């Protein structure tokens, strides 16, 4: 199994009061990818963090093999979620992949 963890911060212009709504939409949309992308074993959005965190949210995914990450990255269902619910609102993306 391969784990793919992505973390983000919100863009500075996103109001604090809008962040919970955006996180909820991200969580719902990412959860909807389950069973739609070959090689994707599990997906979990993390939005409730403790104060020592350096980012505001994370996505924790597990894939069957490393090459599945590239399939996921280009899959239309993932691209639609990322382009609509994530990329317009975030900055400072960090990624960690490991076996």
Please describe the structure with a list of short key phrases separated by commas or semicolons.
99 residues; alpha+beta; Alpha-Beta Plaits; four-stranded antiparallel β-sheet; 4 strands
Question: Any overview of this molecule?
Answer:
With 99 residues, this protein is of the alpha+beta class. It has one domain (2-98): Alpha-Beta Plaits. It has helices at residues 19-31, 67-74, 76-86; strands spanning 2-10, 40-46, 57-63, 90-98. The protein has a four-stranded antiparallel β-sheet with strand order 2-3-1-4, covered by helices on one side. Helix 1 (19-31) runs antiparallel to helix 3. The termini are close together. The mean pLDDT is 97.
Low-confidence stretches: none
* Number of strand segments: 4
Rg (CA only): 13 Å
Order of helices and strands: EHEEHHE
How much helix is in the residues? Answer: 25-40%
What number is the mean pLDDT? 97
Shape: globular
Biggest sheet, spatial arrangement of strands: 2-3-1-4
Indicate the multimeric state: single chain
CATH architecture: 2-Layer Sandwich
Number of helices: 3
Distance between the termini: 6 Å
Short synopsis of the structure:
The protein is α+β, with helices and mostly antiparallel strands and 99 residues long.
Give the topology, please:
Layout: E1 2-10, H1 19-31, E2 40-46, E3 57-63, H2 67-74, H3 76-86, E4 90-98
Antiparallel strand pairs: 1-3, 1-4, 2-3
Helix pairs in contact: 1-3
């Amino acid at each position: 199994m391969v784990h793919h963890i992505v973390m983000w911060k919100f863009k500075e212009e996103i109001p604090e009061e809008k962040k919970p709504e955006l996180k909820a939409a991200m969580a719902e949309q990412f959860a909807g990818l389950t069973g739609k992308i070959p090689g994707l074993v599990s997906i979990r959005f993390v939005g409730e963090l403790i104060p020592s965190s350096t980012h505001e949210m994370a996505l924790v995914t597990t894939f069957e093999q490393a090459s599945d990450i590239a399939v996921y990255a280009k899959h239309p269902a993932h691209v639609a979620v990322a382009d609509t619910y994530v990329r317009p609102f975030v900055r400072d993306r960090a990624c960690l992949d490991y076996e």
